[in-house]
Design goal:
single chain; mainly alpha
C-alpha cells in the first residue's frame, strides 16, 4: 500500500495536470469527470479509492476545493 505522502504527491501532480477553470454552473459535472479520471489513474498506480479517501478525505469535496482554487488564480 502506498504511503499517504506518495498518494498526496500523486494527487497533487494529477490535479496540476487535469484541473482547469470551468464555469461554476459546470462544476458538478466537472467534479464527476475529474473524480472518475483521478480514481481510474490512481488504480493504474496501485492506489485504491479507499487509499485516496484516507489520504485526501472525500474526493468530491477535495476536487471541488481545487476547482475553487483554480478560479482564484489569474490566467
Amino acid at each position: 500500500m502506498p504511503s499517504s505522502a506518495d498518494i498526496e504527491a500523486f494527487v497533487a501532480a494529477w490535479v496540476a495536470s487535469n484541473v482547469r477553470k470551468v464555469p461554476r454552473a459546470q462544476w458538478s459535472s466537472e467534479v464527476d469527470r475529474l473524480a472518475a479520471g483521478l480514481t481510474g489513474d490512481a488504480r493504474q498506480q496501485g492506489i485504491s479509492g479507499g487509499d485516496l479517501n484516507r489520504a485526501m478525505g472525500d474526493i468530491d469535496d477535495y476536487l471541488d476545493a481545487q476547482l475553487e482554487a483554480s478560479t482564484s488564480v489569474p490566467d
